[in-house]
Design goal:
Elements (H helix, E strand, L loop, with lengths): L3 E3 L2 E3 L51 H7 L7 E2 L6 E6 L2 E6 L8 H11 L6 E4 L2 H4 L7 E3 L3 E3 L4 H7 L2 E7 L9 H16 L4 H7 L4 H8 L20 H8 E5 L9 E5 L9 E3 L3 H6 L9 H14 L3 H17 L17 H13 L3 H4 L3 H9 L9 E2 L2 E2 L9 H9 L19 H8 L13 H18 L3 H6 L5 H12 L5 H21 L11 H5 L16 H12 L10 H6 L3 H7 L2
Parallel strand pairs: 4-9
Antiparallel strand pairs: 1-2, 2-3, 4-5, 6-7, 6-9, 7-8, 10-11, 11-12, 13-14
Length: 592
C-alpha cells in the first residue's frame, strides 16, 4: 500500500522487515529516532524532545494488538496538522476527525468523549493529556487510560503535531505462515511461564513486589537517593497495596500473567479513586523517593500523572529534587511558591504535579525535566540532578545493583533501566555467573566484575523483546524466550529463515546502530556515567546490606566496551565491529 498525503502530513502504513521493530503504542515506532517536536534547550539535533538524543517509548495493554487486527503494523505521521485532530483507524481505513473539543482535556476525559462519538466498546484509544499540549517534555502517550508510553517526550511530539489521539478498531484476521507449529510453540512458552518460580509473585503483585525486595537489599530510592532503605516501606509495599485496595488482577492482551491490578479506594481522603496499576515506578516514585509513607497519596499522585499524561519517573525525580534543594538551602520557600515540600508532604507532592503539568509557578521550572531545571537553578544543584544524558532514572539506588548501574550509564535512551534489565545479578548463582559471563560477580548485585558482559547480553534480550513487541517480564526477567526459541517462533510466524545466531546478531545490530546515532549526537565515553552521588558517596549505614557501596563505573565500562567491540577510550564502535555486523556503510556515515 502506497502512502497517501493527508491534511496533517503523510499516512504511511509499512510492513517492517525482519529485525525491524513493530509498534506497540503507535508514535513513534519503538526503538526508532523520530523527529523532534521542539529542540531540547541548547540542542540543534533532531531527537527526543526531552533529551535531544534517541527518543522512543512503548506500552502494554490492548492498543497494539488492535492496530494489528485493523490491518496495520505501524503508523507513521509526518508533518503537522494545521488544526487539532484525532485519527480513527478501522480495518484498513484511516479517518481524520476534528479534535478542537478534545484539546485541553485530560486523558480520562478524552477517552470518555471519544467513546461517546464512537459507541463501540471494542475501540482502543491512545491519547495525550494537557501536559503534552503545554509542551512538558516528560509527556507520554496513554492507552487504556494508564498504559503509558511515557518516556523521552513522545506525547509532546504527538501533541506538537496537533494529534490528540489515535483510535483503532480491527476485525481482520492475523495469519501466520505455519499455524500448527506456531500453536505448539506458544503452548511451550505458556507451559514455561506457568511453571516459572516467579509466576505467582508476578501474577499477584506485578512489579510492585520490588518495593519490598529492593528495600531488603538496601537499594530502594529513598528521599532522593540519600539512603537505600525506607522506614515506611511496609506501609507502601505491593503486598500492602494488594491487601488494602486490589479488586482483581488484570493482564495485557493474550498474556497468561495478570501482573496488573485494578484498584479501588474505599475510605480516606481519596475515597472513590478507581484505577489500574500502579507499576513499581509510580508507587515507589511517590512514596520512598519523596519520603512519603502514605499509600493513598502515592496512588493519587500516580493517578494525577496518568490523567495529565506525564512520566511518573521524570515527575517524581523533579519533585524529590526540589525537596532536596529546599532541604539544602539551594531553593527557598519563596522559590517554590510557598509550597510545603518537606519530605513526605502529601499536599506538596500533589500540588507540584499539578503545577508541572500546567507550567504554573515553580512547575514551569521543571517543564523540560530535572537536567534543565538544575541548569537554570545552578548553585551546585547539577550534582544532585538524578539523570543520565537528560533522562531521569528509576526508583532503585544504582549503588546497590551494579549491573543496573552500568545499564543506566550506557543506555541509548539515557537513564533507562529497560534497555538492559540485567536481572540475573539477583540470582546469587556464582557458578552460573562464571559460566555465562566469565565472573562470579555477574550474579552478585554488589560486585562489579562480569557486569560488562552481563549488560551486553541483556541489552540484546531487551532488543529482542522490543522487536517482537513482547513483554520484558517474560522475555528478559523470566528468560523464557532465548534466541533459539525466538528463531523458531519467527520461522513459524513469518516463514522466513531465522536461526538463533541470526536473531542474536540482529539484536546486536540494533544496539550498534543506536550507539552510532548517539555518536553522531556527540555522545562519548565521558557521557556514559552516573551522577556524582553514586560514584563518590557511599550508601550510609541506614542502607542495610548495601551500606558503604559506590558504583565502580570505569572498570565496568572497560569490560562493556571490550565486549561490544567499541573503542575503550572513546566508546565509539570500531569499523571492524560494524563490518562484522554487515554495517560498514553505516560506520562510514558516522563521520568520526
Amino acid at each position: 500500500m502506497e502512502s497517501t498525503p493527508r491534511p496533517c502530513g503523510t499516512w504511511c502504513p509499512k510492513i517492517p522487515t525482519p529485525g525491524r521493530p513493530l509498534t506497540p503504542c503507535c508514535l513513534p515506532s519503538a526503538r526508532s529516532t523520530g523527529p523532534c517536536s521542539r529542540e531540547h534547550p541548547g540542542s540543534t539535533s533532531r531527537g527526543s524532545p526531552h533529551t535531544g538524543i534517541l527518543g522512543d517509548s512503548n506500552a502494554g495493554g490492548f492498543f497494539g494488538p488492535e492496530l494489528k487486527y485493523a490491518g496495520f503494523d505501524q503508523v507513521i505521521l509526518t508533518g503537522k496538522s494545521p488544526e487539532p485532530i484525532y485519527l480513527f483507524i478501522r480495518d484498513g481505513y484511516v479517518e481524520f476527525r476534528p479534535a478542537h473539543h478534545l484539546w485541553g482535556k485530560d486523558v480520562r476525559e478524552t477517552d470518555c468523549l471519544i467513546r461517546e462519538e464512537i459507541p463501540d466498546p471494542r475501540i482502543q484509544i491512545a491519547t495525550v493529556g494537557q501536559a503534552a499540549e503545554n509542551g512538558i517534555t516528560m509527556a507520554g502517550i496513554f492507552a487504556n487510560l494508564v498504559r503509558a508510553a511515557a518516556r523521552t517526550g513522545m506525547g509532546t511530539l504527538m501533541a506538537h503535531k496537533n494529534v490528540k489521539a489515535v483510535v483503532v478498531r480491527g476485525t481482520l484476521p492475523v495469519k501466520v505462515a505455519h499455524p500448527r507449529s506456531y500453536e505448539n510453540l506458544i503452548n511451550e512458552l505458556e507451559h514455561a511461564i506457568y511453571g516459572h518460580p516467579q509466576y505467582f509473585t508476578r501474577g499477584w503483585l506485578g512489579t510492585t513486589h520490588l518495593v519490598s525486595s529492593l528495600n531488603n537489599l538496601g537499594a530502594l530510592a529513598t528521599r532522593h537517593y540519600q539512603t537505600g532503605q525506607f522506614q515506611g516501606a511496609a506501609q507502601v509495599s505491593g503486598e500492602t497495596l494488594a491487601r488494602r485496595h486490589k479488586v482483581k488482577s488484570k493482564a495485557c492482551h493474550g498474556c497468561p500473567i495478570p501482573c496488573s491490578r485494578y484498584l479501588r479506594l474505599e475510605t480516606g481522603e481519596h475515597k472513590g479513586l478507581e484505577t489500574e496499576g500502579p507499576e513499581f515506578e509510580g508507587l515507589a516514585g511517590f512514596s520512598s523517593r519523596v519520603g512519603n509513607a502514605d499509600l493513598d497519596t502515592s496512588l493519587a499522585a500516580v493517578d494525577l500523572c496518568n490523567r495529565y499524561g506525564m512520566d511518573v519517573i521524570g515527575v517524581s525525580e523533579c519533585v524529590s529534587f526540589a525537596m532536596e534543594c529546599l532541604e539544602m538551602g539551594i531553593l527557598s520557600r519563596e522559590d517554590v511558591d510557598g509550597l510545603d515540600l518537606a519530605w513526605g508532604s502529601r499536599q506538596g507532592i500533589l500540588e507540584m504535579i499539578r503545577r508541572i503539568a500546567f507550567r504554573q509557578g515553580i512547575g514551569d521550572l521543571f517543564a523540560h525535566g530535572v537536567r534543565e531545571a538544575a541548569r537554570k537553578i545552578g548553585k551546585g544543584s547539577q550534582e544532585i540532578a538524578m539523570h543520565v544524558k537528560g533522562l531521569e532514572f528509576f526508583q532503585a539506588d544504582p549503588r546497590g545493583i551494579k549491573g543496573y548501574a552500568l545499564g543506566l550509564a550506557v543506555s541509548s535512551r539515557g537513564g533507562d533501566h529497560l534497555r538492559s534489565e540485567p536481572s540475573f545479578e539477583f540470582s546469587g548463582n556464582r557458578k552460573e555467573g562464571l559460566r555465562r559471563f566469565g565472573a562470579e560477580g555477574a550474579a552478585i548485585p554488589l560486585a562489579y566484575q562480569g557486569k560488562g558482559r552481563l549488560v551486553k547480553h541483556y541489552e540484546e534480550l531487551c532488543a529482542l523483546a522490543d522487536t517482537l513487541n513482547a513483554c520484558k517480564n517474560t522475555v528478559v526477567n523470566m528468560e523464557v524466550l532465548p534466541f533459539d526459541l525466538a528463531a523458531k517462533v519467527l520461522r513459524a510466524a513469518t516463514g522466513l529463515d531465522f536461526d538463533a545466531s541470526s536473531v542474536q546478531l540482529a539484536c546486536e545490530r540494533i544496539m550498534n546502530i543506536e550507539r552510532a546515532f548517539l555518536v553522531t549526537r556527540g555522545i562519548r565515553r565521558e557521557d556514559d556515567t552516573l551522577p556524582t552521588r553514586f560514584l563518590k558517596e557511599p550508601l550510609p549505614p541506614s542502607s542495610g546490606p548495601s551500606a558503604g557501596s559506590v558504583v565502580e563505573i570505569e572498570p565496568m565500562l572497560d569490560e562493556y566496551y571490550e565486549a561490544r567491540g567499541w573503542d575503550v577510550m572513546t566508546g565509539i564502535p570500531t569499523r571492524e565491529t560494524f563490518q562484522r555486523l554487515g554495517l560498514a556503510a553505516d560506520w562510514d556515515r558516522m563521520d568520526v
